[in-house]
Every structure is written in C-alpha cells, then in structure tokens.
Amino acid sequence: MDKTIAKEAILKAKLETGETWDSLGKAINMSPVWLASACLGMNSMPEDKAQAICEILGLNSELVPILSACPHKTWDKAVPTDPLIYRLYEIVGVYGETLKSVIHEKFGDGIMSAIDFSMDVEKEENPKGDRVVITMNGKFLPYKSW
Amino acid sequence: MDKTIAKEAILKAKLETGETWDSLGKAINMSPVWLASACLGMNSMPEDKAQAICEILGLNSELVPILSACPHKTWDKAVPTDPLIYRLYEIVGVYGETLKSVIHEKFGDGIMSAIDFSMDVEKEENPKGDRVVITMNGKFLPYKSW
Amino acid sequence: MDKTIAKEAILKAKLETGETWDSLGKAINMSPVWLASACLGMNSMPEDKAQAICEILGLNSELVPILSACPHKTWDKAVPTDPLIYRLYEIVGVYGETLKSVIHEKFGDGIMSAIDFSMDVEKEENPKGDRVVITMNGKFLPYKSW
Amino acid sequence: MDKTIAKEAILKAKLETGETWDSLGKAINMSPVWLASACLGMNSMPEDKAQAICEILGLNSELVPILSACPHKTWDKAVPTDPLIYRLYEIVGVYGETLKSVIHEKFGDGIMSAIDFSMDVEKEENPKGDRVVITMNGKFLPYKSW
Amino acid sequence: MDKTIAKEAILKAKLETGETWDSLGKAINMSPVWLASACLGMNSMPEDKAQAICEILGLNSELVPILSACPHKTWDKAVPTDPLIYRLYEIVGVYGETLKSVIHEKFGDGIMSAIDFSMDVEKEENPKGDRVVITMNGKFLPYKSW
Amino acid sequence: MDKTIAKEAILKAKLETGETWDSLGKAINMSPVWLASACLGMNSMPEDKAQAICEILGLNSELVPILSACPHKTWDKAVPTDPLIYRLYEIVGVYGETLKSVIHEKFGDGIMSAIDFSMDVEKEENPKGDRVVITMNGKFLPYKSW
Amino acid sequence: MDKTIAKEAILKAKLETGETWDSLGKAINMSPVWLASACLGMNSMPEDKAQAICEILGLNSELVPILSACPHKTWDKAVPTDPLIYRLYEIVGVYGETLKSVIHEKFGDGIMSAIDFSMDVEKEENPKGDRVVITMNGKFLPYKSW
Amino acid sequence: MDKTIAKEAILKAKLETGETWDSLGKAINMSPVWLASACLGMNSMPEDKAQAICEILGLNSELVPILSACPHKTWDKAVPTDPLIYRLYEIVGVYGETLKSVIHEKFGDGIMSAIDFSMDVEKEENPKGDRVVITMNGKFLPYKSW
Amino acid sequence: MDKTIAKEAILKAKLETGETWDSLGKAINMSPVWLASACLGMNSMPEDKAQAICEILGLNSELVPILSACPHKTWDKAVPTDPLIYRLYEIVGVYGETLKSVIHEKFGDGIMSAIDFSMDVEKEENPKGDRVVITMNGKFLPYKSW
Amino acid sequence: MDKTIAKEAILKAKLETGETWDSLGKAINMSPVWLASACLGMNSMPEDKAQAICEILGLNSELVPILSACPHKTWDKAVPTDPLIYRLYEIVGVYGETLKSVIHEKFGDGIMSAIDFSMDVEKEENPKGDRVVITMNGKFLPYKSW
Hints:
Ten copies of one chain form a homodecamer.
Chain A: H1 3-17, H2 21-28, H3 32-39, H4 47-57, H5 63-68, H6 83-107, E1 110-124, E2 131-142
C-alpha cells in the first residue's frame, strides 16, 4: 500500500497524456491543489474520485485503494532546501509571530486548523511580472477550557 | 538600535491605548499584517510611517530610527513549537511539494518571492465556526539561465 | 506581559497557602489539569477565573491580564530529558503508529485535536502499586477534501 | 527475525480478510491497541496469541517466533511529522510540565511507567463532532533513595 | 525553589568543612552516590535527611524544602562533552545492544528500571593502576500485555 | 569484511542450536557480555576464540577473520529510542555529574577508561521483582601534566 | 524523471569525449558554470540547449525532457564537509553580517536574489600562486511595504 | 577584550557622524568590505588602521588593542535565518557541487582559500532593477601529496 | 567513478597479498598515511602512483582514473562515534582554544592549513605501554587585509 | 569555583605583564601548550604550579584552588566555527578513518589515549611560508577481552 507507486504512475501518465492538475481537477470537480496533494501521497482520496482519476489517466484500478488509504505524512528535513519550498518556510519564520498576533486580535486564543483546511493557487497577471497568489482557508479552533 | 525595545514599547502602548493592528493600520494607511510585522521587528518602516505610529501611540520619536532600521530576521527553532505557528509550518511540510508542482505547472521554473511579497488575514464568518483566510501574494521570479 | 512572573507568584503563594491544584480547581470549578496548565503559562484563563485565582491566593490583580493573555507555547528541547516527561514522549514514539492505525480504523482519515481537547489525571489505587490514569479527550477532525 | 516481514504480512491479510484490530482483539481476548502495537512490531506477543493471530489470518506459523521476539523499538525523527502523531507530541510539549506538577502533587516524586502500562482508545459520540478518548494507565514508580 | 542555590551552598560548605560525599553519606546513613545526586539537584531528599545535611554543613534550614522538592532533571547536550561523562555515554553506545540482548536472554522482554534503581562506585586497588567499579542495580520491569 | 554478515550468521545459528550467550561464554571461557559484544560486531575476537565459536555453532571458518577484525563502532542516533537502551542513556544524563564528582573525590582528576574495561550482568532474585545488576570495571586514567 | 540518470550519463560522456564545461559552454553559447549546474541537476535547461548537449555528447534524446524538467534542489547536510564547499560556507558564516551591512548601506533594505542570479569562475594567474575569482551577480530585491 | 564593545561603539559613532563603510574605507585606504568585517569583529585590524578609525570616529584609543586582537569567529546557527544571509547559504547549497566541478577542471585538486582571500561588493545599475555584484578572490591551494 | 569501488578492491587485495600501508608506502616512495588516505577515498593520487599501486596489488588499471579523480570528502556524523576517532575529536574540543591561543602567539592572526598539510604516525616504544605519536605539519596562512 | 574567573584574570595579567605562554611555561618548567590549556580552564594544575603562576602574574592566591580544581570540559558546538579550530576538526573528519587504519596496523585493536596524552606546537621556518607543526603523543590503550 505504498503511495509512492501511485504517485509515480500518475506523474508518468500525466506527462504522457498531457493532462495537468488543472484539467484533472476540473474533470473530477475538485481543486487542482487538493488533487495534486492526494496524487503526491499527502491526502487520501474518496473512492469515486480515485476511480475517476484512474480512468482518465488509463491506470489500473488496483491503485484505487492505495489512493484512498490514509497517508503517513512525512518530510525529509526540518528546514527544506528547495528554494520554492524554503521561501514558504521563511514566510512562516519571518511572519509567524505576526500572524499569531493578528489572528489572536481578530479571533481570540486559538489556531487556524491545518486539517479542516483548503488552499488555492492563482496567477495574477502583472506587467512588472506575474504574481503567485496563495489563499489558505482554515477553520478557527478556539482553545477549550475545562 | 535594538528592535526589541521598540517592540516592547509599542505592545505596552497598544494595550494602554486600546489601539489594534487594525486601527493602527487604517490610521497610517497600511495593512495591519505589514504593520504588525514591522512593529514586532521583522520589517523596516519608512520614516513617515514610523513617525506617525509614534505619534498615535504617544511614543518618544527616538524610536523612529530603530523602527526604520533594516532588521536582522531571526527565529529560535528550526521547528516552531507554538501550535498556531506550527500549523503553518506543517502546511509547508504537507503541501510544499504540491505547491511546487502546481506553481511550476502554472508559471514554469522559478519561485514565489518572499521579499516582493504581501499578505493579508481575513475572518470568514461561518455558522459551523468562523474561518481564517490568509492570502499570500508574491512576485513570480523565473530562474535565469546565463 | 511575561507569563513567567505570574507562574512564579502563583507557585510561591500556592506553597505558602497550602493550596493544591486540586483544591484550587474545585474552588473555581475547573479541572486541576487545565488550571495547572494555565498557571504554568501554557493556556489563557478567562478573566473571571483569573480574578478568582488571584483572590484565593492573595495575589495582586495586576496578574489578571497576564493570566488571560494568549501564551506563546514553547518547550526547550525536541527530546525532553526529565524522566516523567520523557516517558510520555516515549509512549508517543512507541505507540504513535499504533494510535494512528487504530484511530483511522475507528474514525477514518483525520486527527484528534490538541486544541478542542481536555485531559484528566486520576490515581487508581492498587495493592501492587498505585497507578496513574491519564485520560485525553479530543475532537476528531476529519481531513477536508476540496 | 525482522519484524517488518510479519507486519507487512499481517497488514495484507487484514485487508484481504476484512478483519480489524477490534475483531482480532476480541478473537484472541486482548485489547486492540496492544494487538496493533505488537503486529506493527513495537511489542512482543506471547506465543499462544501469536499462534492464534496467524491462524485467524491464514498466515504461515513461521511468523510466530518473529512476533514473539523482543523488538528493537525505534522511531525515525525526534519530532514526528504526521499530523495525527504530531498532535500527541505537542500534547507532551504543552502539557508535560503540567502533568509533572499534577502527578507529583498526587503521588510524590516518581514517574508513570511506560512499561507496566496499558492504553485504550474509545470513540465518544457527540453531535458537535465525535471525540477520541485515549486512556493511559501506568504504574506509579517512586524514586528510590539508597 | 531553585535547586542551584542549594547545590552551590552545599559545594561551598563541603569545601570549607572538609566533608566528603563519603563522610556525609556515612553521617546520615545513605550512599554517597545517592547523596551527591540529591545535593547536585538530581534527586529529592526525604526531609529528615535534608535537615541532617544542613546541620552537619552549618547551612540555613531554609534549604530543606528546596532539597526535598521534586527536581526537574535536565542536561545540556544530547552528547556530553566532558571526557569522564562521555566515556559513560560511549559505553551505552558501544554496549547498548549487547546489554539488551543479554538482559532479554536472562529476564525476557522488559527493561532495567532507572527509577527503582541504585548505584555505587568503588575503588579497586591494582598494581597496574587502580580501577573504578560502578555497580548499577535496577528492578527488572517486564512489558505488560493487555 | 562486513561484521553484519557474521552477526546475522551467529544469531541464526544460536537460535537453531539453542545456545545462549551464557552457554557460549562458558564453552570458550569468556564473559557472556564480552562475547555478545564481539558477536554483535562491537569488539574484535582473538582468533582462537573466533575459531571456537564457529565450531560450536557449526559456522564456516571464513567468518574467523571477520570476527577478529577491528570493528568500526557506530550507533544510529545521538539519543537512543529503544526503552532498555534509553534508560541507560538516562542514567548517564541524570547521574553523570554525580559520578564525575564522586570519582574525582575518590581518585583525583581523570576518567574511568572505556577501553581497558569489562562489564558483567547478573540477575538478583527478589520477591518484589528480580533486579538487574550491571557491574562496570574500568581502569582509572589520571590526566597527564606535561 | 530522475535527474541523477542524466547527470551520470553526461559525466561519463564528458570523460570519454574529453569535453569540458568550458568547451561545452562555448559550443552552446552558455556560461560553463550555469551549464555545469544544469548538468549536475540543480537547474532546468531550455529544450534547445538540452538537445544540443545531447548531440555533442552523443547521448539519447530521451534525456532532453529530464534535463529541462524543474529540479527539486536538495543538499545533504546543513554544514557541508567537503573542504572546497565548506570554505564557501565559512565565507557566508564569517562575512554574512558584513555583506548584510554593506549591501543595506549601498541599496537599502532588501536582498540579493539567488534566482535572478548568475555566477562566473575565473583563474587569475599570479606568481605567488594562481587565484580563484568567483563573481556573483544577483538582482537587488527591495522589501515591499503594503 | 570583547570585540562586541568595539563593534557597538563603532556602529553608534558611525550613525552619529554619518560616516559609511565606504567613506571610512577610503579614509584609511582599505576596502569597505574588509573594514566592515573588522569593525563587526570578524577580522583583526593592523594597529595603524585601528588607530586611524578611532580618530576619525572620535573613539577612545583603548579600542585599538581590541580591534587588533585575533577574533574568535563564531556564528549562531548552522542554517542562517536572515533572508539576505540565507540566500548566500542557498547559493553554496545549490551551486557548491558545481563550483567544485568547475574549479577542479580549471585548477586541479585543491580549494579556494578563505584566508588568503578578499571580497568586494559593487552596485550594477540596471533599468530593470539594480544588481548586486559580489566578487570573491581567494588563492588556489593545491592538495599536497607526501 | 565511485571511489568506494577502488577502496574495496584495494582492501581486499591488501589482505590477500599481506601488504601493509607501510610496505606499500615504501614501494611507491610515499608516506603510508597519505597512501592510506588516498586508498580510502579521501585524497587523489598522481597517476604514476596509482598505476604503481595497481601493479603491486595485481589490480585492474581501470582503477587508475578512479584513484586519481578529485574526491568528494564526506563524513557521516558531526560527532564521530568510533572511540579511536572520537578521541581525536575530543582533543579538538578540549584543546582547540588552547591551540588557537598558542598559534596566534607564535605566528599572529591566521590558521594552519589542512590542505598544504602532511601527517605522520609513529610508534614510540615505552615500558609502561607504547605510545602513538601523530605529527601534523601544515603551512601557516596569515589572514589577508585588503 | 568558576574557572572563567581565573581565565580572565590570567589573560588580563598576561597582557599587562607582557608574559607569553612560552615565557610562563619556561618559568614553571612546563609545556606552554599544557599551561595554556590549564589557564583556559581545560585542565587542572598541581598546586605548586598554580601558586607559581599566580606569583609571576601578581595574582591573588585565591585563584590557586580554582586553578587546581577538576574542570568540567565543555564546548559550544558539535561543529566548531572558528577557522583555526575548524581546520583541526576537518582533519579529524578527512583523516579519521585513515588514522584508525594506520594505528590498527601498527598497534592492533585499541585507541590513542586523550588522557595520558601530551601535545606540542612548533614553528618550522620555511622560505615558502612558515609551517605549524603539532605533535600529539598519547598512550596506546588496547581493548581488553574478558
């Protein structure tokens, strides 16, 4: 039940068919970001979505239970090295205390859930250079007193 | 020129005056997220903004050069412990490779800048529990070949 | 607004008055575990509870805003050294994958919240040696697909 | 005598037979949490229990000595990354000193054993969202003076 | 209630009075190793022993509650640097798996307790160079199945 | 010349022949702890001892030069995770400074050698639970002034 | 799409054909430093350049999509060990704060981009020993206020 | 002989006098990069240069021996956090193996010295955004065979 | 071009032929320490020396370009575990600041090169136990001011 | 009994009197390297030597018991940053396995003691640049079998 097998099969088929996260997302009516995360092994797919992806990409349906299994989410290094990912880590380091202060001011004591959570990526065209717009949307969870 | 001095003075004055990042941001016509980051010592403030903040909060203008100095941005631990900040770190860990794949698909090889960058935090009201919406907006920087 | 000041004042007063987490918890109608965590600086107290604690322990009410502020939760070392705390860390290491497998079987893909969460400690008397019983109760949060 | 072999055989057979930790635990009269931990390679099984599990799952009895061998308990990273397991780690970080203080108050100087120890997981139904209830039960071990 | 205060007072008085761990241990009828560990802040002392030590060393009895408090046991670095202490760490590294194998062979699955535990240090005279003999004595704790 | 090969062959043969570290040690007139350490790859064996072990266990004498080669002693993690081994590490952490102070008092400035060193493990029967007794015996090495 | 395959094929062909980074760079009209980085898997190559390299080195054009894919940039250790690379790391450690101070003085608050970036290496002949001259050229990115 | 004292005195005087690394460098006929590094405590200054700096900035000549002492060069974290300095670290990570390969091709086996070394920073004006140009110049040191 | 292949072939041939680092060093007129380092993959060999070693040990001359390639010098752990190597690391830790102070006193500000460097190991016979004598000889490199 | 106090007093007096490690070593008939290590807090001094040093440097004899106490040897970072000390660390990394192999060949299985150990530093004049010669002399300790 190794999710790496599904990931590699999907990446290969995606390249051969010319599908994109965008086209695949539209085809199964899900966000491309969520779809990519599930194909890369970081989320579990509902069975019907997994079935649909396998059909579109011409993959063996033996991958369905693998895609719908609960993943073990792991990453390699405490501090990422790839520049695209490091910049996100840096934003957490530079703005973490800022976000904490602003969220507490707006919501009180608690956190933004990373589980009841969704995320989108958009391209904002700009003559000085296009911009990446990432939107994170997570439920606010207040701390419980007991 | 220790930014900690300015940070503590501002937090104390903010509590006493009842000002918020939101009200201060509006007063000086800047985003509350940026303003908070600059007051917490993670960004430099243009002199006129620093002057305005000191006036609103009744602070000595000796803080102006401190607030407008270039900060040394540092954080304590490679993996943050505070739950609010850790959830953001976890999002980078869980979704880092996903974001890399989606951004490369949309933009080609390059990164989202964390320097030519802005960020907002909004509260989305929801009967099942309000939601935190964080929007990041960074210039796409393509890798140069030479 | 340093929570260490409140923590030290409370520990000193607790020793002098002979109060315990148990007696204090009963007096303000909260769990002794939650109360201890808030006094030790790891949770924020509602203002009325903070006021009550200060009165019982004869402490200056200037501590009230400190006790009700949102804490920055931090710990010193990735691997704890104190034997009592290390054993809890070891339980997470030894049984983490087991708990993951059992919870996924019972609830599906998701996690136990550490925010919408409570915990109790009881003493189970036993002729072969008393036993510590720790009960953790956290909301199950299913992963969102989007 | 590699416990990974037994683990993989059991997980595969469990999927094919539709057995669960719960049904297997009942069948051999042991807790599903303990059973899962032993099947995942983190505890040793008494030979009769190992024999029974192999029969129920239709596995070769060559796995019996592997299942009953003393495991080398190891985990990958000082700070776990999987969100379900991380939340448990976070609870130890946030509440470790609290538990230490409460247990010392109730029992004196000593620790809760992680060896003479058992654990259960229950589902508490709740209209606002079901809750995970984890109960840990460990012998109190007082420090010896000599 | 900082155990460092007691430690420093005791080390100073010990030097001035010429007492040794050995003479102090005999005087209060306890092992010098345990006594040293309690004076250095790594174990709690029964009140009568703490009282006796303060009297012998001419120390203020305000140290008694500090000496009898439950310590927070902490050490600085995962790998010790002082050569005397490093050699002990090295013995654990080189012989850890050996001790595990030998103890499992003699006792079955379980561990040697570090809590229900005592230790002695003796000097073995030897013409080729005296030898240090350290004896550790810990209760065997078998793993529980449940 | 990989010592892992010898280790695995010996563990397999030991299981099949029913020999123990104890019986093997007696047969070749060496301590079972030393013998185990050499078989597990952490010490080199004199050739005659290696020859004798191979004969008793019915192993190919090609293992003799492997068993008598100087090992590269290595361990995986700075902080061990297996509970039996961790307890030994914890003893070094908790009692390291104590042992340093007691040994300096008895012997002067220097260390206990981990090279000119032997160790034994005994079972002490006890109605309240048997006890593990580990004895370490190392030459005292005084620091040289020059 | 493993860039290691392309790297190994290129290094082997480079050795057999006697080509150098310099000669290859001239042949395709790119800098040898950039070319080496792309062949070693740390940058993506425009397709025509990848095609040209494969032709010159007599390599299968199946390597073209691998060479033009976006790399996952990773390195092994936070602190490099190879002396040539360590010296560069040391320069960052010793002169990092200096460069920060000098760049802020010349440019204001911001950074030198490592993405919109190029680098050259030249040999400066010198009778006392030739010198390595590394020139880095990166766009200055000012921090944005918002 | 704490270089931090000299550093702070110089930074304060530099701010008050309006001198820059550039103007100071010209005044004493040294590179502003070297001068900054020596003032920030990472290099030792020849006495006459230290004397000249103290005179220009109106500082007590007691700082001269501090400025000319050999520094202990240290930095805080294996991976820098400040974005300007991190980008330099990232360049070493991304291009380290490239530089190694190119330098070995041009010079043979050896390294670029970080001791017999100089560095300059220039501003390259550019309508698309000015560029930072860093030039490093270090003696090539061939490995010795013996 | 993997130096591990050459290393393993040489160690095997050395064992079979009975050659030693000493005898091989004499045969090719190089120091046994340097020779060992080059055979173990930590230095590059001039081609004629590599050719000579292959002939003496009866090895395929395909190893010559491997032996003369520039190595990537890497080691596994920041703190070595093998006792022989750890003692050297400990000497650097204990005496590092001492050596720094003594060398600066004798030579001024600078370092001992580890590149323009040679090392020898001798056995000093001594009735109380033979002694290892290691001599390091490295060029002093003064820091450059510029 | 803080050795830092003695260290600072000695360094100050050494600067004021113009004494050097060399002149002090000669005056008390000890090696300057050992003397420096004892003054810097990494070795204990025999009382007569400590007395002599205090007299030469005009220091209060209260420092004598501090200088003759057993030090707790500690260093800050697993990987040193100062270039002079790092080069020594690098030599251990690059040549550690080489020294292990050469010493085992010359002496059998065992180590060079870092306790029964002495070290000298000499300047070797050389027209191409003076050389630092470090000689380490440690007793060979063979592993004991038992």
